[in-house]
């Protein structure tokens, strides 16, 4: 009987030691967290931000993709168009077109020979106007539409 009592007391002692050990680890983690947080706030206060400006795209430097397309809905397609989305699924293309129409664009759909639907937000007779509009769309809707491209109709 005495051995059981000693065993229970020993077991209780071990449990108390282990619980006490958790508190010291917890406070050590808390201290490390507070230290890191304080360092982070001083680092961000000292850090200077330099605005990054990228050179504006010019009509001669802009890449275009030549494609034979036909208008699915909307206006006719001029020589150069700004494409913001390409879809195999027409429902997805229509959804993006409607979103952009609600944003004030005269967006429309075109389809290429492989069945891809192109969501076009602007179309122009000259390349430089298309490039300018693409850059405006990319800037206005950043980070969306960073992969917008110019379609050169065949």
Please describe the structure with a list of short key phrases separated by commas or semicolons:
six-stranded mixed beta sheet, 3 helices, elongated, 2 domains, 154 residues, alpha+beta, Alpha-Beta Plaits
Structural commentary:
The chain has 3 helices and 6 strands, in the order H-E-E-E-H-E-E-H-E. The chain is of the alpha+beta class and 154 residues long. A 6-stranded mixed β-sheet has the order 1-6-3-5-4-2. The longest helix has 45 residues, at 2-46. The termini are far apart. The relative contact order is 0.16.
User: What is the count of helical runs?
Assistant: 3
Q: Would you tell me the structural class of the helices and strands?
A: alpha+beta
CATH superfamily of the largest domain: Sporulation related repeat
What average pLDDT do the residues reach?
Answer: 80
Binned strand content: 15-25%
- Report the C-alpha radius of gyration, rounded: 31 Å
Layout of helices and strands, plus pairs?
Layout lengths: L1 H45 L17 E4 L1 E5 L6 E8 L2 H13 L5 E5 L4 E8 L2 H14 L8 E5 L1
Parallel strand pairs: 1-6
Antiparallel strand pairs: 2-4, 3-5, 3-6, 4-5
